[in-house]
Design goal:
By secondary structure, the protein is an alpha+beta fold. It folds into 2 domains: 61 residues; 58 residues. The protein is built from 2 helices and 7 strands. Strands 1-2-3-4-5-6-7 form a 7-stranded antiparallel β-sheet, with no helix packed on it. Strand 2 and strand 3 form a beta hairpin.
């Protein structure tokens, strides 16, 4: 498998737009370190390192970043902290499973209703978090 290294982005060159819907061209904006798309009207600014573009405009509240490797490669911001997110997911899953086991061992105790509420709350938070992580991948 060939790994492409990011290339420095040239402010004098025209690039294809990273937005897959419109297939426009990124053209440099005069006297700035920015590019504009001729079809989707998105604006992109060159990051300080010169190797990545940051989306500045658009409807989406997320700020997308791309690197040029002969084509645009998306840079995911959550990849900076994958260990923290992984640990939190495992701790939440273990807590959820331990609460299920406690509930199964003694379902008629006084803690049954609070445990059920806590179980459903944790389950909904876990599902919500997984949906957010999946949404970031697109």
């Amino acid at each position: 498998m060939h790994i492409h290294k990011p290339q420095k982005i040239d402010l004098e060159q025209i690039y294809p737009c990273p937005c897959p819907r419109k297939r426009g061209k990124l053209k440099p904006i005069a006297l700035t370190d920015a590019f504009g798309c001729d079809r989707c009207s998105l604006l992109f600014e060159l990051e300080n390192d010169g190797y990545s573009l940051l989306q500045v405009g658009g409807i989406d509240s997320q700020r997308h970043t791309w690197q040029w490797i002969g084509k645009w490669r998306a840079i995911r911001e959550y990849q900076q902290y994958p260990l923290l997110e992984t640990v939190l997911m495992y701790i939440t899953s273990l807590l959820f499973l331990s609460l299920v086991i406690m509930w199964m061992l003694d379902p008629k105790s006084a803690f049954t209703m609070p445990l059920v509420i806590l179980l459903f709350t944790l389950l909904s938070l876990l599902i919500w978090r997984l949906l957010i992580l999946r949404r970031r991948d697109f």
